[in-house]
Amino acid sequence: MVGEAGSGGSWFQRFLLPGFALKAVIIGGGYATGRELAEYFVPAGPWGGLAGMLLATLIWSVVAALTFALARQLHAYDYRSFFQQLLGPGWVLFEVERVLVDEAGTEVALSSGEYHLLHALVRHPRQVMSRDRLLDLVRGREADIFDRAIDNLVSRLRKKIEEDPAHPQIVKTVWGGGYTLACEVKRLGPAA
Q1: I need a surface site. Which of 29, 75, 91, 131 has the fewest CB within 10 A?
Q2: Whole-prediction pTM value?
């Protein structure tokens, strides 16, 4: 099995490559936009920015390597069994937070960004939310006017919750305004 203890692979493949892959996913997934990269480079200059990115890559390489080592030790080679063993009985709370269940009972897993976007829209149903406002609610930071990361999140969320993502009925685009949750929201169960 790939990743089992004793399997071959160079030091680069086992320790550094996971950090590079994770950084690529984070940057490519819209979690580090041009603004964050500029904020990395401008204060420290180009060499300081590169050194900062290399340090972040090394840190994430160590985190990934430790996670992989723990997964091998627990013999947990998939997401669910890893968190079941890591968190014990509390894994269900971790899992439930970001999983939707459709009318047929099928689980629809959401990424952290998709979950926070849906949460922001549900808290403000039928209100037009600008990209800047949504980014502020989703990421907890001031949004860059040219930042289109929210569009990627909306697109991914639509693929998971809309019957026809090309013609959305739940998360609608308001041209010149942003996005709106175009449905009624009802709380089920007791208020928290």
Answers
A1: 75
A2: 0.51
